[in-house]
């Protein structure tokens, strides 16, 4: 699954109680109904976020990871869903001939064939 959007925030590498390290990025999608997604990268993939900053246009490939946790006090089951990133790319802007030569008009009637 891919998420396209603008970078809102890139977090630092953080460790939990079990010394499992993660790094988060927050992305806002573009469109009529924007969404904000917090995407987690584990320590083996955290370096992929190096070089990205706020307002960068990116595409992130993610997997959905669901977890179950049972409370030791109440024996109640809780379920969690995380977006786990595994690939990041800059979104490429499409460039047309008029973008390269905005000061010139391009005529199609002077082709040599």
Shape: elongated
**CATH architecture annotation name:** Beta Barrel
Q: Which parts are unreliable, with pLDDT below 50 for 5 consecutive residues or more? A: none
Number of strands: 6
Tally of individual domains: 1
**Mean of the pLDDT scores?**
88
Q: Strands across the major sheet, in which order?
A: 1-3-4-6-5
Distance between the termini: 45 Å
What is the helical fraction, as a range of percent?
A: under 10%
Under CATH, the topology can be stated as OB fold (Dihydrolipoamide Acetyltransferase, E2P)
Query: How do the helices and strands follow one another from N- to C-terminus?
Result: EEEEEEH
CATH superfamily: Nucleic acid-binding proteins
Q: Main β-sheet: number of strands, strand sense, barrel status?
A: 5 strands, mixed, barrel
Count, helices: 1
Please give a quick description of this structure:
With 113 residues, the chain is mostly beta strands. It has one helix and six strands, in the order ββββββα. The chain has a five-stranded mixed beta barrel.
Task: Looking at this protein, list some descriptive labels.
113 residues; mainly beta; OB fold (Dihydrolipoamide Acetyltransferase, E2P); five-stranded mixed barrel; 48% strand; elongated
Descriptive notes:
With 113 residues, the chain is mainly beta. It has one domain: Beta Barrel (OB fold (Dihydrolipoamide Acetyltransferase, E2P)), CATH 2.40.50.140. Helix content is 4%, strand content 48%. It contains 1 helix and 6 strands, in the order E-E-E-E-E-E-H. The protein has one helix at residues 97-100; strands at 2-10, 14-15, 21-28, 36-42, 57-70, 77-90. It has a 5-stranded mixed beta barrel with strand order 1-3-4-6-5. A hairpin with a 5-residue loop joins strand 2 (14-15) and strand 3. The mean pLDDT is 88.
